Amino acid sequence: MTADLSIREHLDAHGLAAKKSFGQHFLLDLNVTRKIVRLAGPFEGRAVIEVGPGPGGLTRALLESDAGKVVLVEKDPRFIPLLTELQDGDGRLTIVEADALKVKEAELVEGPAHLVSNLPYNVGTPLLIKWLTGPWTPLSLTLMFQKEVAERVVAKPGEDAYGRLAVISQAVAEAKLVMHLPAAAFTPPPKVASAVVHLVPRADRPDAALLKALERVTAAAFGQRRKMLRSSLKPLGGADLCEAAGISPEDRAEVIDLDGFLRLARAASGQTQLTPPTDGGATLARRKRA
Questions:
Q1: Is 42 within 8 Å of 64 (Cβ atoms)?
Q2: What is the C-alpha separation between 210 and 219, in angstroms, rounded?
Q3: Which of 240, 241, 259, 278 is most buried by its number of CB atoms within 10 A?
């Protein structure tokens, strides 16, 4: 009997099926979950938090790893009895029945911890933003998203997927797309493919004030991404804000790189010491030649 069938049998024995309202799609193949854990590690005895474990396919692989402690955050009470069966009395596995959007991670673990999760599709992006911009910073995040969302996290300027999520994610962490998975890998199969993103928080991440300014600037710029920045950023200063940051007001959000958005955020937050443009002011020069 394969491990995959064993988990399926446990689901059947407990009369459990995925809930569409929770965005649940189970990953049951231990060969796949072990690969995800290898991409996430090594953990070197640190704690790992897993959100939305469901029947525990990824949990089993985490318990085989070098994680010192595995903390599960599961909103669906139907899965608590099944997950409890994975506890072996050594206290290494902790199960918390809670909404991950509301839980305080610092209260779940002592010291730094990693995050490894096959996230429910309907809350993947809000959870990522919470972990990237909130008061608790994980050592690393290895997260499964819909492929479209994963591509938005790692996208570069000029790419179709480039937007606010890419800028915020990459301002806070080094982000890499490390694995693709077809819909057939899940039970039940979703209508889209999935991908795993590995993020490691940057040592030079923006402070809280600058990050809030960056969120405001990107919300305005990408909220009207077809407009020139002088128009989309008008509530924040428009052309004057762009000039203060060394950015051409005629540019659109999709061509501005991370450094450019950070300069805009510094200008919007009233910080006087702006980072000089890395292109030597070429963007502003393009505007003057126009």
A1: no
A2: 14
A3: 241
